[in-house]
TrEMBL record:
Region annotation (Disordered) ranges: 410-431
Species classification: Bacteria, Pseudomonadati, Pseudomonadota, Betaproteobacteria, Burkholderiales
Full protein name: Family 1 glycosylhydrolase
Domain of life: Bacteria
Length: 431
């Protein structure tokens, strides 16, 4: 059993389609993970991490209703089990298989729930999940901004995508709990704020600051604001669909994951248009707003910054984010984990994956040659320094996570691993 502070990283498994579905952006392919996955897991351990946001490529694994190719998942997850690394399993990251189509498909939630159950049955030792990653961003980029997948540009296509991804998340949680009743779900979601640029922009900013909560309100069964209710009803959600969300509250199995980058805060103009504001409030202030709304344990599930020309920009950002985590934790918010995302550099996120340019973004703990970056060294040092201190500060700020090798199949003996105490102990005298 692990009850310490959850330091983590992630391996990017985004798979949106662009160009009207003609090209799939597979970040695992672009970043070389299919070839170097063993080395990548070595690097996770080199940093000193026990937690990894990770999932199999959905489009390569889920071949059709009831049809799966588990070959890559078997190799990688069995190796994670051997290493006793705790995966926070990222089942759907910004895309679906071609046979599903896109997030406008109303069959997606129920179909995805069967996939989630099939995965949990195959890997019953897995306890932690993010069924659908960044539900709000997924729906915005696919259903409103016209960037990914269905490339929708209307409020109606956005609401359709939103209700489908959140329903998929809820149904997946329900199915996984049937297999693993102590499952824990981390809602990795972008934490946003919109600043009014002038007095005339106060109304549009208030509207956007209400809409930023929609995915989590629906997921956690919280009644949305009246303005948001009217918006949802006007754009295709039915009262019956809305009440489905109110009646499926699984908050008691959830950790609220807050993702924060410099791009998460925005200025809003009088006409409702937005543009980047950079860091104004910062992670601590905005996370406090989310915590006050949902009252759940918090994990900082994503952050990064490019290494930059001076070579220390990412390191300074790491220390700033960590200072925010300590500040809000000391103020009483139960922050239980922190994540630098991702393990290696990413590719084409400078265009939000809208273009297939092959641009390497220096955001990782390691570069794509698997050489450690300064921020990787700094994160390793941070974990060594703080990993021994935080668990002793408060037993109330601990999450009871089962390590992979702790799992015992019902009615079966515990597995003995080569590096376990049981494997090296002297045999008992049975005479």
């Amino acid at each position: 059993m692990f009850t310490g502070f959850m330091f983590a990283t992630g391996i990017e498994n985004s798979i949106p389609t662009i160009g009207n579905g003609k090209f799939r952006v597979d970040e695992m392919e672009k970043c070389g993970h299919y070839k170097h996955w063993r080395t990548d897991f070595d690097l996770v351990q080199e940093i000193g991490l026990r937690f990894l946001r990770y999932g199999p490529p959905l489009h390569k694994t889920w071949l059709g209703p009831g049809r799966y190719d588990w070959s890559f998942a078997d190799e990688t997850f069995n190796d994670l089990h051997r290493r006793n690394i705790v995966p926070i399993v990222d089942l759907c990251h910004f895309g679906v298989p071609d046979w599903i189509g896109n997030f406008q498909n109303t069959d997606f939630p129920a179909l995805f729930a069967t996939y989630a159950r099939a995965f949990s049955e195959r890997f019953p030792w897995v306890q932690m999940y993010t069924p659908v990653n960044e539900m709000s961003i997924c729906a915005l980029f696919s259903g409103l901004y016209g960037w990914w997948n269905e490339q929708g540009t209307t409020d109606r296509t956005f609401v359709t995508a939103l209700k489908n991804v959140v329903k998929a998340n809820i149904l997946a949680m329900r199915e996984i709990l049937q297999v693993r009743p102590d499952a824990l779900f981390v809602q990795s979601e972008s934490s946003e704020y919109f600043h009014a640029e002038c007095p005339e922009a106060i109304g549009p900013a208030e509207m956007k600051n209400a809409s930023r909560f929609l995915s989590l309100d629906l997921n956690y069964g919280r009644r949305v604001d009246s303005q948001m209710y009217e918006y949802l009803m006007a754009n295709g959600m039915t009262p019956e669909e809305y009440h489905f969300f109110l009646n499926n509250n699984l908050k008691h199995h959830c950790l609220m994951g807050n993702d924060y980058y410099q791009t998460n805060e925005h200025f809003v103009g009088e006409d409702g248009n937005t543009w980047p504001s950079g860091e104004v409030f910062g992670y601590a202030v905005i996370t406090q707003q989310y915590y006050d709304r949902y009252r759940l344990p918090v994990m900082h599930t994503e952050t990064n910054l490019a290494q930059g020309p001076a070579g220390d920009e990412a390191v300074r950002w790491l220390h700033k984010e960590w200072a925010n985590v300590l500040s809000i934790r000391n103020s009483g918010v139960p922050v239980v984990g922190f994540t630098w995302y991702s393990l290696t550099d990413q590719v084409d996120w400078d265009s939000a994956l809208r273009e297939n340019n092959g641009n390497v973004n220096a955001l990782g703990l390691f570069d794509l040659d698997r050489n450690i970056r300064p921020v990787g060294t700094a994160y390793r040092n941070l974990i060594r320094a703080w990993g021994k201190v935080l668990p002793t500060q408060s037993v109330c700020l601990q999450v009871p996570v089962s390590l992979p090798q702790d799992y015992v199949t019902p009615h079966a003996p515990a597995p003995v691993h080569e590096n376990s105490e049981a494997a090296t102990a002297a045999p008992k005298n049975t005479e």
